[in-house]
Amino acid sequence: MFLRKSCLLAGGLLVLSFPVLASPGETFSFGEAAPAAKATRTVEVVLQDISFSPESLDVKAGETVRFVLVNKGQLLHEFNLGDAAMHVSHQQEMLKMQAGGMLTATGMKKDGMDHSTMDHGDMGAMKHDDPNSVLVEPGKTAELTWTFGKAGALEFACNIPGHYQAGMVGKLTVSQ
């Protein structure tokens, strides 16, 4: 009996250790990507080295917001929408991308991975293409448009390794 419980626990932990990779057409419990033309409001978010401005945002359930993301820092940054658990999972994915040479301090390589040492089954098709996330290189501007589905507490964060932990996270409140 003890052995069976141990195997179940080990199997459960193994499943939890894999990153969640979203499909571009995937919807989330808190909303979905939308075309910019459907936006009812535009919000500019400035990404600086280890901070966002503004630090918090308020939106309404059902609202479609076009985020214009301006990286005024010297480092590559990310704007990722989700709850705290999603950010933890995405940080693991970003660590693997960095370890594989796909992410540098200032950009993302198209195919910068060292394929000779990588487990092709695990990372061969890894891309940064989640619909709730965008990378912004230093001095560049990018956009993400999102329709918020329900009221709740979310975060917008940079999950480049170490950035979230250093405080590059903001509160996003979705009200009715």
Automatic annotation (TrEMBL):
<dbReference type="Pfam" id="PF00127">
    <property type="entry name" value="Copper-bind"/>
</dbReference>
<feature type="signal peptide">
    <location>
        <begin position="1"/>
        <end position="22"/>
    </location>
</feature>
<keyword id="KW-0186">Copper</keyword>
<dbReference type="InterPro" id="IPR008972">
    <property type="entry name" value="Cupredoxin"/>
</dbReference>
<dbReference type="InterPro" id="IPR000923">
    <property type="entry name" value="BlueCu_1"/>
</dbReference>
<feature type="domain" description="Blue (type 1) copper">
    <location>
        <begin position="44"/>
        <end position="174"/>
    </location>
</feature>
<protein>
    <submittedName>
        <fullName>Copper-binding protein</fullName>
    </submittedName>
</protein>
<keyword id="KW-0732">Signal</keyword>
<dbReference type="InterPro" id="IPR050845">
    <property type="entry name" value="Cu-binding_ET"/>
</dbReference>
<keyword id="KW-0479">Metal-binding</keyword>
<dbReference type="GO" id="GO:0005507">
    <property type="term" value="F:copper ion binding"/>
</dbReference>
<dbReference type="GO" id="GO:0009055">
    <property type="term" value="F:electron transfer activity"/>
</dbReference>
